[in-house]
Design a protein that fits this description.
With 247 residues, the chain is α+β, with helices and mostly antiparallel strands. The chain has a single domain (2-21, 32-212), classed as Cytochrome c-like domain (Cytochrome Bc1 Complex, Chain D, domain 2), CATH 1.10.760.10. The chain has helices at residues 2-23, 40-54, 65-71, 76-83, 100-107, 117-120, 123-131, 156-159, 192-210, 214-246, and strands spanning 60-64, 93-94, 133-135, 141-143, 160-171, 174-187. The strands form 3 sheets. It has a two-stranded antiparallel ribbon with strand order 1-2. The structure holds heme C (HEC). Heme C binds at residues 53-54, 56-58, 107, 109, 111-112, 114, 117, 121, 126, 129, 146, 149-152, 154, 202.
């Protein structure tokens, strides 16, 4: 009976890291993106969107094109021809030409490097951010996830134009208007479902960008867990053997 309890404790201990991984992340009020970095097709589509629509303003300087080509099984020629729009070389990091000073002048705030945004903000945040652009009363862009973002809505032609529907909330006896939900007032070239799918792809790519090693790590991880389970079992047998003499 005592041994049985010890074994249970061991199993619980082994399961701890997994529970921790599940508990981490999250974030309030974000719609789950469903981004899956093990879906190669999704990552490839995400990469294409990223290079076409984001790298005008954002760099991803911790990533090199050739690593991208290899990890996403794109082929270096394909990346050179279709995804690099400047005179950069295949071994170069994904930097951009825009200077910080110019960017600040144009947008009021320099667009941050997006290499690690998947880690600091998370894929769900990015996904919701890309779904959350709306046209406010002044005719400018605003965003439900990042209020008063100085980034324009780069996908408005694809998504169409959303406008907010407000609701009144009371906080400490003071009433104020907050965005309840967004309404599509002008359809874009993509259906809302297709736009969602594209943003899921983009979020998956940004997740990958934040931690490229997780592609390999997750595959190796399964074997590591099996290996540990096997050795835990061996250790248990050994313990039973030792204690037999003690008792
Ligand atoms: C026209 C320039 C421009 C383009 C193109 C652009 N962005 Fe931005 N982006 C900005 C600026 C400026 C900010 C800073 C916004 C702020 O903090 O107010 C920003 C901020 C962000 C942030 C928030 C960073 C943070 O944590 O505060 C994310 C995420 C982001 N952009 C993702 C993207 C993605 C993905 C694309 C491509 C689909 C893209 N951006 C295209 C200018 C741009």
């Amino acid at each position: 009976m005592k041994n049985y309890k010890n074994l249970l404790a061991l199993v619980a201990l082994l399961a701890l890291p997994a529970a921790g991984a599940l508990a981490a992340g999250g974030g309030a009020d974000l719609k789950p993106s469903g981004a899956n970095i093990n879906d190669l097709g999704s990552l490839q589509r995400g990469a294409q969107l990223f290079m076409n629509y984001c790298m005008g303003c954002h760099s991803a300087e911790y990533m090199r094109y050739n690593r991208l080509a290899e990890d996403l099984e794109l082929g270096e020629d394909m990346v050179m021809k279709n995804l690099i729009f400047t005179d950069q070389k295949i071994g170069d990091p994904m930097t951009i030409a825009m200077s910080q000073e110019n960017a600040e002048q144009w947008f009021g705030k320099a667009p941050p490097d997006l290499s690690l945004i998947g880690r600091s903000r998370g894929a769900d945040w990015v996904y919701n951010y890309m779904l959350g652009f709306y046209r406010d009363a002044n005719g400018g862009w605003n965003n439900t996830v990042l209020e008063n973002a100085s980034m324009p809505h780069v996908f408005w032609q694809l998504q169409g134009i959303q406008e907010p529907v407000y609701k009144t909330v009371e906080e400490n006896g003071v009433e104020r208007q907050v965005v309840d939900h967004l309404e599509l007032v002008e359809p874009g070239s993509l259906s809302p479902e297709a736009y969602d799918d594209s943003m899921r792809d983009l979020a998956a790519f940004i997740d990958y960008l934040g931690e490229p090693a997780q592609l390999k790590r997750k595959k190796i991880g399964v074997w590591v867990m099996l290996y540990m389970a096997f050795f835990a079992f061996l250790a248990y047998l050994l313990k039973v053997e030792y204690w037999r003499d003690v008792h």
